[in-house]
Amino acid sequence: MTTKQVEVRAPMSGIFYRKPAPDQPAYVEIGDTVKKKQVLGLLETMKVFQKIKSPANGKVIEILPESETPLKDDDLVFVIETG
Amino acid sequence: MMKKILVANRGEIALRVIRACNELDIKSVAVYSEADEKSLHLKPADEQICIGPAISAKSYLNIDSIIAAAKSSGADAIHPGYGYLAEKEEFAKACEENGIIFIGPKPENLKLAGDKITAKNIMEEAGVPVIPSSPGPVGTLEEALTVCEKIGYPAMVKASGGGGGRGIRICQNEETLREDFLIAKAEAGASFGNDELYIEKFILKPRHIEFQVLADGSGNISHLGERECTIQRRYQKLIEESPSPVLTANLRKAMGEAAIQAARAVKYFNAGTVEFLLDSDDNFYFMEINARIQVEHPVTELTSGIDLVKEQIRLSSGGKLEYSFNDLPKRGWAIECRINAEDPERNFLPSPGVIETYLPPGGFGVRLDTHLYQGYELPIYYDSLIAKLVSFDLNRLGAIAIMKRALREFIIAPVKTTIPLYLQIMDDPSFRKGDFDTGFINRFVPGEDDEDF
Question: Could you report the predicted ipTM of this complex, rounded to two decimals?
Answer without folding.
Answer: 0.83
